[in-house]
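worker-03 picked up job from queue 'complexes'. Input manifest follows; two sequence lines, order preserved.
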Amino acid sequence: GQQVMQIPQYQHVQEGEDFTTYCNSSTTLSNIQWYKQRPGGHPVFLIQLVKSGEVKKQKRLTFQFGEAKKNSSLHITATQTTDVGTYFCAGRGNYGQNFVFGPGTRLSVLP
Amino acid sequence: DSGVTQTPKHLITATGQRVTLRCSPRSGDLSVYWYQQSLDQGLQFLIQYYNGEERAKGNILERFSAQQFPDLHSELNLSSLELGDSALYFCASSAPDGLEHGYTFGSGTRLTVV
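worker-03 finished. Artifact:
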């Protein structure tokens, strides 16, 4: 079945440094979504990417969908302590109905 | 408040017991999804209901069952509980026109089996 992997599993950065998490699928995806889960909270939808090579920005967050639609990345510029949490990608295959979540990348930001 | 309501927030029970988790989807959403999140783990999809009908099944154990009622609220029943069933159980709902705006998650039920 479809598998979605994320690297790194954990990332510790100093406040102000940049951060990137990568998402890779074993199969071609029709679309991919990103979620953020704060410590002790629930996942919150951030964005969906649909087109090959698509790039979307939300303030300091930049999301990219690979040309082959098998990978994606989330880049945060100049991290802040409010960015702390676990970032999940979720991919849906071309014939899938629901999204498969990756294991997440846990981000810690040191002030 | 996401609009998805889960009760109870916390549950502590003994091995072998049976519990019921409840979820009310966001107003207007027809789909309900159940996910299990173990400590430091990702989100494991259990089951989906759409307007009262089972739509998709994930890695749900035979000891677990779910249903969605006419008022669209859903219940997840966990029986013959084992220590390994301790986890956060999330319910999510989605808009009738699909998942373009993602899943909306509730705040979860933390189940501890002792």
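worker-03 released lock.
The CA atoms of residues 15 and 82 of chain B lie 5 Å apart.
The mean pLDDT of chain B is 94.
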